[in-house]
Amino acid sequence: MAVALIVAAGSGERLGAGVPKALVELAGRPMWLWSLDALARCAAVEQIVIAWPPEIASTQASLAERLCTSVGIESVEGGASRSESVLRALRAARSAEIVLVHDAARPLLTPELAESVISALSADPDAHAAIAAAAVTDTIKRADASLLVSETLPRNELWSVQTPQVFRREALERALGGADTELALATDDASLIERSGGRVIVVPSSPENIKVTTPVDLRLAGLLLAARHGPSA
Ligand code: CTP
Ligand code: MG
């Protein structure tokens, strides 16, 4: 069995909604509820810990507990960086061997995707982490500061990384035990494991599992959720 950590403590500056991003309404619900709902329906998940923006932690925590009764819910106040929010949630989690980390900013998560990333890690005893990722469809080039192209990267080797990311607990604890400066720069947790030579495996995922970063992402996520759940969603 696994514990799932949902990091929802960001401010959502690039979305610019005037409220923390996880609270923004999306297809009739606060954004965080889509991820909570998907993880609560994942049979391998025994507990969900949510890291909230401190100013809304107590109100949203009681709402989450009221709306989701099928699995244990724990809440913590998030930290100044994403990694710190993950660490705080991890400290509050039960002592399960497998830890799934998911961004509340990815509301298109499905229980099936969470299940398949957990299964991929369980199936490879040498792996430290398994991560959802979509195959890159654009051609990706490297350019310097003057916008001069220096390289075209081989597309068949490139993956656009998502969450959920699933870890063996001791590997995640070790990765999050690094220097604060290193943690503050990490945009995902698996990169911290790669840096110390850990084995991270990719689980191919749908490009539909988008991250809501900007207003256009929010519109797209709303359309995708309405298409999935019907116009009332
Ligand atoms: N996150 C978090 N704690 C932080 C920063 C981010 O829990 N201190 C979470 C966000 O809530 C989000 C995920 O990490 O679910 C991915 O971060 P991102 O998309 O960058 O969200 P924000 O940091 O909120 O957005 P921005 O960078 O535009 O301010
Ligand atoms: Mg951010």
Could you explain the architecture of this structure?
The chain is an alpha/beta fold and about 230 residues long. The chain is about 35% helix and about 25% strand. The protein has helices spanning about 30-40, 55-65, 80-90, 110-125, 170-175, 180-185, 190-195, 215-230; strands at about 1-5, 25, 30, 45-50, 70-75, 100-105, 130-135, 140-145, 150, 160-170, 200-205. Strands 5-4-1-6-10-7-11 form a 7-stranded mixed β-sheet, with helices on both faces. Strands 2-3 form a two-stranded antiparallel sheet. A two-stranded antiparallel ribbon has the order 8-9. Helix 2 links the parallel strand 4 (about 45-50) and strand 5 (about 70-75). The two termini are about 30 Å apart. The relative contact order is 0.18. The site of cytidine-5'-triphosphate has 22 residues, from helix 3.
**Approximate shape:** globular
In N-to-C order, the SSE pattern is EEEHEHEHEHEEEEHHHEH
Q: What portion of residues is helical?
A: 25-40%
Structural class: alpha/beta
